[in-house]
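stage 2 :: seqdesign
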């Protein structure tokens, strides 16, 4: 898979509280490239609400997952999640094909859904699968 076609960016340290720039062992800002960069880009796109980046010239960047917040966990909300993810990733030029989006309700936490996403990168060479935890309730 061509790392060059999938790009390079600053690596983010992403956890349940948000994201921050990662630092490498030498104290410099860490970078991410290739398939790992695409995975990070997908997470960033899903974590950003459409319109948040408009002032920076990225009007359509992001997702509409925030519109599902506060909804009960049912077939309708699972369908809304699927559509929000598919619509968001349609704007990612490095994705050749969205293979699947599956919203999996957590057995123990009624407010948690794990979104499993599989894509074929535009550079070919296989698939990329990621799991994105999404909370229907605001903590």
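stage 2 :: out
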């Amino acid at each position: 898979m061509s790392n060059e076609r999938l790009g390079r960016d600053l690596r983010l340290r992403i956890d349940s509280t948000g994201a921050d720039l990662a630092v490498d062992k030498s104290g410099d800002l860490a970078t991410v490239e290739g398939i790992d960069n695409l995975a990070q880009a997908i997470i960033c796109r899903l974590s950003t609400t459409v319109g948040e980046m408009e002032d920076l010239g990225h009007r359509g960047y992001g997702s509409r997952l925030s519109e599902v917040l506060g909804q009960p966990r049912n077939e309708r909300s699972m369908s809304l999640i699927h559509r929000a993810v598919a619509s968001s990733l349609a704007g990612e030029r490095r994705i050749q094909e969205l293979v699947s989006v599956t919203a999996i309700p957590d057995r123990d936490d009624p407010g948690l859904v794990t979104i499993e996403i599989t894509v074929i990168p535009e550079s070919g060479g296989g698939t990329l699968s990621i799991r994105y935890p999404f909370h229907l309730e605001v903590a």
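stage 3 :: structure notes
- The chain has one domain: 3-135.
- Residues 3-135 form a domain with the Nuclear Transport Factor 2; Chain: A, fold (CATH 3.10.450.40).
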